[in-house]
Amino acid sequence: MHGRVRCSTDYVAVYAGTSTSSPLIDSLCGSQTRTIRFSGPSVLVDFSSGPRVPQYKHSGFLATVTFSGVVGVPSLPSTPKPPRVPALHNPQEAAAADEGAGGRVCDQVYRSNVTREGIFDTSALAPGRQTCCLRFIGNEEEVVQVSLFKYNIGGRNCQSEASIYDGLTDDPGDNLLRRLCGPMSREPRDATGRFLQQEFFLSSANALEIRLNLGQNTNFLSQYLVGGYHFHNSLQEGTKNPGSVCDVMFYGASSPGRGSLIQPSTTLLWNVEGALNCSYLFVPTSSQSLTITVQEGMSTATKAHCTTECGEEGCQCQPSMVALQHVDHLLLVHTLSHNVIACFCGDVKEERRLVVNAGGGVDLIYHVAHFTWATPGFNFTLDYRFAPAAICGPEYYSNPTGEIGPRQYTTPVTNILYVTCHWGIASPQGAALALTVSPPSQGSCATWNLTVESAGKDKNDKLRGNACAAEDTTLFDIPAHHLAAEITLELRGEQRHDWLLTWNTHWPPRLPPTTSVSPKPELSRTSDLHPTRYSTI
Question: Which PROSITE patterns match (predicted)?
Answer without folding.
Answer: CUB
